[in-house]
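Sequence in, structure out. First:
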Amino acid sequence: MYDWIADHQKVLSVCASFGSVIIWLVYAQLLYLGFRRQRSPRLIINRGRNKDVNALCLISNMSAEVVFIEYIIAELETSEGTITMDVTDFEQEYDEGDEDPVEQRSQSVPDQRSLSVMDNVRQGPMESGGFLHIGTFSELIQRLARDEGILMHGDAPHGDLEFTRITLRLIGIYGPENMPIGAERSFDLTVNADTLTLRPASWDTKRLASLWERRKLRKTLEKLNATDFSSASSFRHVDREENDENRSVAEQASKKPRCNDTA
């Protein structure tokens, strides 16, 4: 045995060196994957509690560090255009008499008041492993439709108008990094017996974390901050356009000179 080792000493030395290189490469790869995992932000957009439009829109931070949420943009695609709105602040409406004296007294407590602020403002840091919700998908759709003046019949639009897809887009800052990060996910909408059904368009949330995407997000973030963006729309009101066209045709017809018969 010792004689065989002595005879093949050079070959065994080369094999040992080659094996050491492979081990170090594997170890370096594991270190790199661990570092990349810690530096890669991951935000999840999902539905919770239900599977239809009454489901909560959940946002989860699965990153290793804190993510500061800057903007939450909702985009509603319809058969007549697209409606885009900043839904970072959770809209809540109250009518007179909605709160009884007990609830009013509870709101006067500082802790309850701070909780109320957190329930209405979605801009801020989200801890690793934490989550929040921005209301139900139905509330988001109603909010977008109300901003555009669309008449609703339950959860579905009135008339021939159709809602086809709703997209949620997040823009935030990850840990100590200067460049923003983002995430987006779309949900298809279909009408079933005057109610909207909700189905994810993809199995996972799309991460916007590449260098090109982050530069694009930075330009978008600068534009949003400079213009105080709240909503935008390419929605086309067909009924209004038809009424305007009919009105213009009638006005043009009334302005045409009439020929009088001469005796």
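Second:
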Amino acid sequence: MAKIRVSVERINGYCNLPMQVGDYFYIEDSKLYIPEGKHICIWALQSMMPIFPILTVRSRLEDNHWVKKVKTFSCPDPKGLVQYRLEVIE
């Protein structure tokens, strides 16, 4: 099964948590791994969750499937505008 690394790529607004550029976490086998002493915004996580299962099987999808083009994800907070990079590690 694939591992997904989600990292903060940039912040185009104001994040009050605060998430910082370079913060990251992993999803693997339905488990969430967050580095010790770090955190993740539950609202951003909730908005990303529907795509995680699809990303883990993307190698079985057709070449032109839209999921294969997903590289970033935006925080749902219109004031925060945190951009997350999604990387599938096979």
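Remark: The chain has a mean pLDDT of 90.
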